[in-house]
Specification:
Number of domains: 4
Radius of gyration: 36 Å
Shape: flat
Strand content: 5-15%
Largest sheet: 5 strands, antiparallel
Number of helices: 12
């Protein structure tokens, strides 16, 4: 009897479980269906709105397009050029500030200051339309910086500082390579700007001092590692000569060398030490090549700028879109006003 009761209880529990699962699935599918239904209803409302106000919206788009076409026809052709740089010694923030300062002069149409800063004529400075700097975002920069941080701190700190937390604190200034774009109405002015932009950072006394000290430390470390490598190579040669001399003294099959394992271990240790020093020298060589200058120019401004085109720069599309958006807002505002007036009457 007890066995039958247990089976009945298990069947009841399984039945209840299936009912709960079925109820949960039904609720989920009803939720998804209601979302799809609401989205469909919202889409129909948009289509009805467009149908009811098609003439007004078409007039707004055409009017905006015509005004944009006139402005597009009369505006000057603009050209762009790019300068890619790799700032060192945390000089990227100063570079961003300098570019922002140049762009502010352009916005203020301060041709006198621009002419004095870049050593160009006032006509050439008046042709400048925009200075902009953006980082070339590379996931490897983020990973490399995080690895360097983890290796530089103790284990407890490393465990408490996750990659996501580090990623949130990683700013545009921390990327290695940055792109400087200049926009102007003259297509041959860009090479004249290279030297001033770079020298504004290179001639900074603080950054130059850091550069000198960093390179002195790298040269000192490089010299020390090379001396250590020479000493290890000399020790390996002496050790090999000792092994050869000992092998000559060993009679064929009569002596047992109990220290053979230790000798092999020492030889491996010397080889590993030599390999590690060679890797360190390679890293220092890369650091010296990158940090020999305060800022490295990866690519200069093009001698002749490229013409800037596209929908985002075309007044026809911009003003047509603006006219459409403005008309939609006016119609919605009118409907809201009508609803509020009738609401008060209720």
């Amino acid at each position: 009897m007890s066995t039958k009761n247990n089976q009945n209880e298990e069947e009841v529990e399984l039945g209840s479980l299936f009912l709960i699962i079925g109820s949960g699935l039904r609720s989920f599918f009803n939720f998804v269906f209601n979302i799809i239904k609401e989205l469909y209803h919202f889409l129909i409302l948009i289509l009805l709105f467009l149908k009811e106000n098609f003439k007004k919206l078409a007039i707004a788009v055409i009017a905006g397009g015509i005004i944009g076409a006139v402005l597009e026809y009369n505006k000057d052709t603009t050209y762009g050029a790019d300068l890619q740089v790799q700032p060192n010694f945390k000089s990227s923030r100063q570079l961003y500030n300098n570019i922002s300062y140049y762009n502010d002069l352009v916005k203020q149409k301060d041709t006198a200051s621009l002419s004095k800063t870049f050593g160009i004529s006032k006509d050439e400075s008046a042709s400048l339309k925009k200075f902009e700097i953006t980082p070339i975002k590379n996931a490897n920069d983020l990973l490399t910086s995080y690895d360097e941080l983890i290796l530089s701190v103790d284990t407890l700190t490393a465990k408490s500082y996750s990659f996501d937390a580090f990623k949130r604190t990683y700013t545009d200034y921390d990327y290695k390579v940055h792109n400087i774009q200049v926009v102007a109405t003259q297509n041959n002015i860009f090479p004249k700007l290279n030297e001033v932009i770079i020298s504004s950072i290179v001639e900074n006394k603080y950054f130059d001092k850091v550069r000198v000290l960093t390179n002195e430390n790298l040269n000192r470390t490089d010299s020390l590692l090379r001396k250590n490598l020479i000493q290890i190579d000399s020790l390996r040669k002496v050790y090999m000569q000792v092994l050869i001399e000992e092998s000559k003294k060993i009679s064929s099959g009569t002596n047992i060398d109990l220290g053979g394992t230790k000798k092999t271990t020492k030889e491996i240790e010397l080889f590993e030490a030599s390999r590690r020093i060679s890797e360190d020298l390679e890293e220092i060589s890369e650091d010296k090549s990158e940090k020999s200058e305060v800022i490295n120019m990866i690519s200069n401004f093009q001698p002749v700028g490229y013409e800037i085109k596209g929908v985002q720069e075309n007044y026809v599309f911009l003003l047509a879109g603006f006219g459409f958006s403005l008309m939609v807002l006016l119609i919605l505002f009118k409907k809201l006003n009508h609803y509020l007036n009738h609401y008060n009457k209720k």
